[in-house]
Amino acid sequence: MKSIPHVPICDDCIIKGHSIFKDLTPDQLDSVHFGKGCSLYKRGNIIYHEGHRINGFYCVQAGIIKIYKTGIDGKEQIIRFAKTGDIIGFRSVLSKELACTTAKVIEDSVLCFIPSENLFQLVKENAAFSMQLMQLTCRELGEANNFITDIAQKTVRERLAEILLILMDTFGLDEDKVLRISLTREEMANMVGTATESVIRLLSEFKMDNLIDLHGRKISLIDLPSLRKIANM
User: 35 and 104 in one domain?
Assistant: First the structure.
């Protein structure tokens, strides 16, 4: 972690226009700006650990963060990814509980840390902000419920197809239909909830069936209708 010399100004930040911060008043934005601290995190850095207390939440100004839980055997289960404009850690702050997940950088990131007292002040003062925060919480809980259902009812092949489509919806494809996020096979397996060897085998099968193409860690999605059919989405 390294503090950055030029802290992004909240009122000028492009994130403000499409995030929960868009309904803040100028004075509230100033309060957030002057109370926050922004740092550069390199790939592999841990933002916060599961089971630790965090005294504020983070806004992702740039980069990609993976949010995961750790099983009894030490295996990661990736819950979701956070990208530019997302906030992380806020639910543990609101509930005043220990962090229920770990946040780790997978692409060099700039994060702004906003102390918990600022969050509570905004919740009390701004009804629109509170509603946005509540809706965000509900969406995350809905995604968690869908994940639990998929783990229980879908095959590994179906879940892998669904994960590829979710990554496309989240990060998009470039002009060559390549996912704009590069994950290790282990990270893919941690999203699907299976062994790394199973993901490697299934990706090879998808390639043989002309559903995808592989370029090292990069994955091209070639046949989207067939992937959606496999995923039962």
Answer: yes
Q: What is the distance between the alpha carbons of residues 203 and 183, in angstroms, rounded to a whole number?
A: 13
Same domain, 40 and 111: yes
Mark whether 147 and 188 lie in a shared domain: no
Using the predicted structure, report yes or no on whether residue 14 has a pLDDT greater than 60: no
Q: Are residues 41 and 90 in the same domain?
A: yes
Least confident of 15-19, 33-37, 74-78, 217-221: 15-19
Same domain as 210, residue 118: no
